[in-house]
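Entry for the shared binder. Reason: the reviewer on the internal report wants the predicted structure included alongside the sequence.
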Amino acid sequence: MQKQGARWTAQVRPDSSARVLRFYVQSDSVKDQQGGAAGWGRMIYGADGEPVRGAHVARAAFLRAHYEGQAIRDTLMRAYRRERALHPDHLVARAHQRALQAQQRPARADSLRGAVLARIDSVRRQHAGDVATLREVQRAYFALGRRDRARTVGAAIAEAAPRSPEAEMAAFRRATAEGAGPARTKKHADGFLERFPDSFFESGVHEALFNTYRDAGQTEKMIRAGRRWIEREQVNRARAHRQLAEALAGAGRYDAALKHARRAVEAAPEASRRYSFYKTTSGWDWAAVPLTPRERRRHVRRRRGRERAVLGRIHYRRQNYAKAAEVLARAVRENPSNAPGWAHLAQARDKLGQPERARAAAREALRRQPSLRPARSLFRRLYAEQHGSEAGLDSTLARLARGHLLRERIDVAAPPLRLTRLPTSDSLRGDSLRAGALDGKVLVLDFWASWCGPCHEAFPHLQDVYEKYRDANDVKFLAVNTSWNDTKARARQFIDEAGYTFPLYWDAGGQVAGAFGVRSIPTTVLIGKGGRVQYREEGFSPRRYEEALTWRIDLLRGL
């Protein structure tokens, strides 16, 4: 390879019998949800040296399934543009491109989606008997969120090609439908297995039977289905052993549960951590990505730790606390990031009358997952026993959460804030928001609408947090009405009648919400003093809302 400025050039001479060439390139240009590098960039080239049709779309599908954030959305848009540059008629790339543009421009969303939807409908009519084209039409409908039309097209494909992947998937969905009783699930499962005896989805059918029997309390049938699932599982036998072990423990079959939990530990090295895609006759599929020896050792160690933690929990349920503590201690050494494993280790040590060691394990659990309820309740009790009261507990929990809060920051650029202050009884003026007034401040943006029930539940808690920082010069709250099916009058009336005093802003056309990628409300966004988005929380959960928001604000104030 040669480097010329920012570009690397590689000359490759594949074997003359090669039909496609797949490259694996380590890249740090995209970050995953845990802040690490996305890992392997993937592209597939044909004999003519050009990417195979759909390769850019397949790469985008992989990224969309595994990562999130503004950086990924930009990468997706580039992938779709490149696909259309090579293949202007690629419906799926066009549909995804317009869907992303509609998210970024809410005011034009209907026209953007409508234009490409009309094109997809036209292609569907013109190629009603062409299975290959209908597959692309189906994926294009999915890209626009038109699942009803996609299902209709899928049914047409299944009817035209009874042995096609679409027909197989339709039968699989019937066999694994949630909510069906054991008899109905068994009927559809038998039909699927008879029609597609060598299907890749065979293990999924047995898993569905296992889950149905488990939920119905039919232990013997559950065990038989679980064993068949393990025999047919091709990707992750450790997971099948683990779920059967947990179900057996729940049924009081501890000896059998321990046996399968140990087998889960033994099978842990088989499971792959990363996947790539490859071309098939009907589309694209996934395959395991090769790991370096160091990555594989680390991966195997962590997987064993995860499965061993289940083994320790079963010993705990059997009230063998000494063995549980021994096994769980080894599990967290193998997989230190497993917060529930630390919490169960703390519980086992507490049962053994080891308060100091139990406190230490609970502390490690809370460092990794501050909201973990078993660890919090145990640590609270042990803290009070040690200190004679709970004085200072909140500050201790905040210190333990600091590392976790730092790791979960997303740290992406914030779009411009073009908002208008709505006059309320607490604020009589409706000035536009001045960008300079926000420099060097921690911003708390809460996107809402007056008709949103969860927003109503969240506001009393938001008001309490606002009161804590009302006089802080470096923290500013903005309750942003998205204007989705709402009016300024209704927004002001709701705030005034409820007596809330936090600042209210109007997002005309939902443009700011769209720029921040808000898809549902309420959504809370925290921007640090440097003007970058650090946290984003969708929905509302009353448990620990105020505590979590306060921790994040205090952390950003100190950075």
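Summary line for the report: Residues 293-317 form the longest helix (25 residues).
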